[in-house]
Amino acid sequence: MSHLFEPLKLRDITLKNRIGIPPMCQYSAQDGMAGDWHVIHYGSRAMGGAGLMILEATGVTPAGRISPGDLGLWKDEQIEPLARIAAQAKGQGCVPAIQLAHAGRKASVGLGWEAQKTLTTSEGGWMPVAPSAVSFGDGYLSPHALTLDEIADLVAAFVAAARRAVVAGFQAIELHAAHGYLLHQFLSPLSNQRTDAYGGSFENRTRLVREVVTAVRAVWPDNLPLLIRLSATDWVDGGWTADETVELCRGLKALGVDLADISTAGLVPTAKIPAGPGFQTGFAARVRHEAGLPAAAVGLITSPAQADHIVRTGQADMVLVGREILRNPYWPLQAAQALGQVGIWPNQYLRAAPGGSLGR
Ligand code: FNR
User: Fold this and answer.
1) Which single residue of 213, 234, 280, 343 has CA 20 to 30 Å from 336?
2) Confidence of residue 343 (pLDDT cuts 50, 70, 90)
3) 318 beta partners
4) What span, in angstroms and rounded, lies between the C-alpha atoms of 153 and 206?
5) DSSP H helical ranges for the chain
6) Ligand 1 center to residue 24 CA distance, Å?
7) pLDDT at 26 over 80
């Protein structure tokens, strides 16, 4: 029986426990480059004891950023500051991963704490692209519908970013196919109204995701895991469904995906989401049991007992704890203490660990 503090092996990488930090945008990059904020933010979270840390949505092209403050990996100059963060995490025994992303029709909006509407060019914005010229909603531009050549260029951009992630020293990649961003926009019939090989049937709507997975897997080292984040449901009639998620995951397993990070929603602003503790965990359980693909549960997982229960009862192989670890970077070490497990405190902090001695 697995529990929260049992290691998890994905290919040749062993996570020291089943706690991961999900990707969370910091909106603090300049021209896609990580800076001091990222070094401190990710450094302190890597020290907090999680087995895996997935860096925020990182644009594979400039137009693929959600906001002008997103990280990027579309040029070589962006590698070095990320390499510093990856090395620091590894030094703490925390596996560094990076989420490669394209925001599609939800690109070119303000920073997370600013108005969420398409920025004009004078505000630093750009023309968003998408499978079809269907806007996300009020305040969002109708995007440019991608041509077949442009779709091929995007696959190449994911590949180029993956190559740079290898150089930066990341030990896992997560492809962002959730939350209504570009890859999810292709999956859902609500945003994908194409009539070519990328639209219509399940096979066609999932084609781009499968192409990106195949192309990235071909350049991403065989010994390192490839993760994907999916929104299991749009929570809207006529949208992408949990059954389709399970079916897609069966195919992705065969293509070399090692773990699915199962979230929900984000495709349309009108979805009614029954948010509450563990509200998305059942979807991860379905992927794990029905598709046979290892899965991570995420969403309002905040207590050690709840996190341990999810792993112990086989609902997911690991949990991702987001906002709770924004509030408290040491959550994993404190969870170990609460569950009677040994937390691996940094040597420098050992005197503050359970049983530590009074400093003089
Ligand atoms: C997020 N989330 C998110 N998701 C994602 O796939 N890529 C991203 O870059 C971001 N960015 C982001 C920023 C901030 C500030 C927050 C709070 C969230 C979603 C996040 O990964 C997670 O799925 C949710 O926060 C739900 O988990 P918690 O916070 O309830 O544990």
Assistant:
1) 280
2) confident
3) 296
4) 17
5) 36-46, 79-91, 148-168, 182-187, 202-205, 207-219, 242-254, 281-286, 304-312, 323-327, 331-338
6) 5
7) yes
Q: Is 273 in the pocket of ligand 1 (CB under 6 A)?
A: no
Model confidence pLDDT, tens digit, residues 148-162: 999 999 999 999 999
DSSP of 41-79: HHHHHHTTT-SEEEEEEEESSGGG-SSTTSEE-SSGGGH
Query: pTM, whole model, 2 decimals?
Result: 0.98
pLDDT at 83 over 90: yes
More confident: 133 or 350: 133
Annotated catalytic, 181? Answer: yes
Q: What is the pLDDT of residues 213-228, one digit of tens each?
A: 999 999 999 999 999 9
Structure tokens at 70: 């997103």
Q: State the distance from the centre of ligand 1 to the C-alpha of 298, rounded, in angstroms.
A: 9
Sign of CA dihedral 57, 61, 67, 73: positive
Across the range 248-255, mean pLDDT stands at 98
Map out the domains of the chain with their CATH numbers.
3-350 (3.20.20.70)
299 lines ligand 1 (CB under 6 A): yes
Q: How many angstroms separate the CA atoms of 219 and 134, rounded?
A: 33
pLDDT in tens, 56-69: 999 999 999 999 99
Whether residue 1 is predicted with pLDDT greater than 80 in this model: the reply is no
Residue identified by tokens 């939800």 is: 106
Q: Is 277 in the pocket of ligand 1 (CB under 6 A)?
A: no
Nearest-CA residue for atom 13 of ligand 1:
24
